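Sequence, structure tokens passed on for absentees:
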Amino acid sequence: MSDNDGSAADLGWQNARIIRIEPRTATIKSFFFQLPVPLRHRAGQHVDVRLTAPDGYTAMRSYSIASAPDGTDIIELAIERIETGEVSPFFDDVAAVGDDIELRGPLGGHFVWRPADAGPLLLIGAGSGLVPLLAMLRQRRDVDSDTPAALLLASRTWSDVLYADELLVESERPHGMQLRFALSRQAPQRPQDYGRRIDAAMLAEVIGLLPAAPAAVFICGSNGFVNTAADAVLAAGVHATAVRTERYGG
């Protein structure tokens, strides 16, 4: 794909070695892969992962890249266990440091953000839908961007909040983003957070944390979550051309 659509070149399949595994929540682990050929990805892009059984059967799944674009040969994927899945249970139960895994990418040219993009940034995620948004926040931090940003992250309980410690630190640094958590099955732990599912009133409040209307809105999560969040953003007066969505299964 060409640069003008916001994508970077897909390098094709390569064998990436797992060099570190870190548990994140009860169902999500981070896997750090060392690549023979570094990816020149953009924040928000994903890779395809392919597993091949001894009988030749293959299963493939797409995972967003959690790490910021930095030109190194290491990328981080946060993989959530899906009980009915073919790929995620392998990573949760079997995959180990030293294993070689086939992956290709980077892929995707629509759901990407670059520090040069102008205007306030609004990020809305649920569960593992945070991952591509985290890559954007990490790049924003790494280049010390002062682009105003706000993140609304929906989770069931506090223990389900992905990268909670990192997000809290990021929100407190100079030029850090405005951060709000929405917990659907637990009372909020901070006074500024929410103890309910996202709704139009909540989105209007979060948009109000920005100094001006968001120039770009990225929403990632399940189909129902994305539909609800996108409708609420539009109801708050954000132009449809500013909204980009990515839907995860479930």
Notes: The chain has a mean pLDDT of 93.
